[in-house]
Structures are given as C-alpha cells and as structure tokens.
Design a protein that fits this description.
The chain has one domain: Rossmann fold. Helices cover about 40% and strands about 15% of the residues. The protein contains eight helices and five strands; from the N terminus they run βααβαβαβαααβα. The chain has helices at about 10-15, 30-40, 65-80, 100-120, 145-150, 155, 160-170, 195-210, and strands at about 1-10, 40-50, 85, 130-135, 175. Strands 2-1-3-4-5 form a five-stranded parallel β-sheet, sandwiched between helices. Strand 3 (about 85), helix 4 (about 100-120) and strand 4 (about 130-135) form a beta-alpha-beta unit. The model has no long low-confidence stretch (mean pLDDT about 95).
C-alpha cells in the first residue's frame, strides 16, 4: 500500500463557492478523485484546512492555520509516507498575511525544508517523495468581501506557478501546476466548483503514478 498525504488549504478541504463555502461532497474533493484514479494499492489522506498558509499566523482564526508549524506533527501522525503533496500559498496572498508571491514562495520553501529533512528521524524510515503543486490562479470577483480580502492577489497569484517550479528544481521534487487544469470560480475568485476541483485530482493521477512507479 502506497500512502500519500495531501497537505493543503480550502481547495484541498473542498470549499464550494456555489454553496457559500460549504464543503464539496466527498467524491468531488480532489484527494478523493486522485485516490479513485490511482485505484487499489493507494491511500490518499486529505489534510486540507480552510485558511491554511504556508508559514504565517492568522491570529483571527479559531484554529492554528500556520502550515509550517503544523507540518512536522502531521507528517509524524501519518508516517510512514510514500509521497507528500504540498499545495498552499493562496492564503498567503491576502494583504493581512504575507500579501505577496515572494512571501508564499518563502513559506513554501520552509515547508519543503521541513518535509525533506526535519520530520523523519526514526531509524529505517525513509523520507517521502514530494510533489509541489501550484494552486489555481485567483480571478476577479464581484464579491466585495473576497475582492477586499484578496486585494492585489490576482496579479500576485499569476507568479506562483513559476516560483514553485523553480523551488521544485532546487529541492528536486515533482511539480504540477493546478492552474493548467482548473480555474477558480468568479463567485468568490478563489475557490473551485465541483468540476474544477475534480479536475485537479484527475490531472494529478499520471504525475503521482510516475513519481511512485
């Protein structure tokens, strides 16, 4: 059995913009779709959390959303792992968080450092392979709350994929641009409808198979 950890934010969790942020049905969340596409012999663990950042605190939240701080605990919780999929950065683009693509890139770099070297110290336990996924771009929205919450983030999100691709080269990980198969809904500019959420899982199937071959 190959065990895969999907570590992400509300896109991984499955926020549905058409239902006011309620969660997509389980069969439409991309980790579920990925597991179905891979078939028997693979387990995909959905560790998505709404609002999670790469490595920045959200002091207004009712739970810890700092991805880098939580990552070592979650890696140990589900160890041993064969593959860790990291898809974070969208929330970093909020002005009340990092507010820039460079902040998201540096936060993701820290997550990669943790996954590569920090969390695996048990004798005989190999480090997992890593797949870095750039989230879909943020798109303009008429929703006044989300437009203000992500002010300036539309342009910044366009730069994440290239920044993450370069990180994947530096850390010798797999890379996938989720924006190549999925687009955010203009309802809130950030989250995905069911079809686009499923498209991420479907698009990841051959990438994951190749990494775990």
């Amino acid at each position: 059995m190959k065990t895969i950890l999907a570590y992400g934010d509300s896109i991984t969790w499955g926020s549905n913009p058409e239902a006011g942020g309620q969660r997509h049905a389980r069969e439409n969340r991309w980790p579920t779709v990925l597991a179905a596409g891979l078939g028997p012999g693979f387990e995909v663990i959905n560790e998505g959390l709404r609002g999670r950042t790469t490595g920045f605190d959200d002091v207004l939240a009712d739970c810890d959303r700092n991805g880098a701080r939580l990552l070592p605990t979650i890696l140990y919780t589900h160890a041993p792992l064969d593959l860790v999929i990291l898809m974070l950065g969208t929330n970093d683009l909020k002005p009340i968080q990092a507010g820039s693509w460079t902040g998201a890139m540096l936060g993701m770099k820290r997550c990669l450092e943790i996954t590569r070297s920090h969390a695996f110290r048990l004798p005989g336990m190999p480090a997992p392979k890593v797949l870095l996924v750039a989230p879909p771009r943020i798109v303009p929205t008429a929703d006044p709350f989300y437009a203000e919450l992500f002010d300036g983030a539309v342009a910044a999100s366009e730069k994440l994929a290239e920044a993450y691709r370069l990180l994947s080269i530096e850390f010798e990980t797999g890379f996938f641009d989720a924006g190549s198969v999925a687009k955010a809904s203009p309802i809130d500019g950030v989250h995905l409808d069911a079809a686009n959420t499923r498209a991420i899982g479907e698009g990841l199937v051959p990438i994951v198979r190749g990494l775990l071959a």
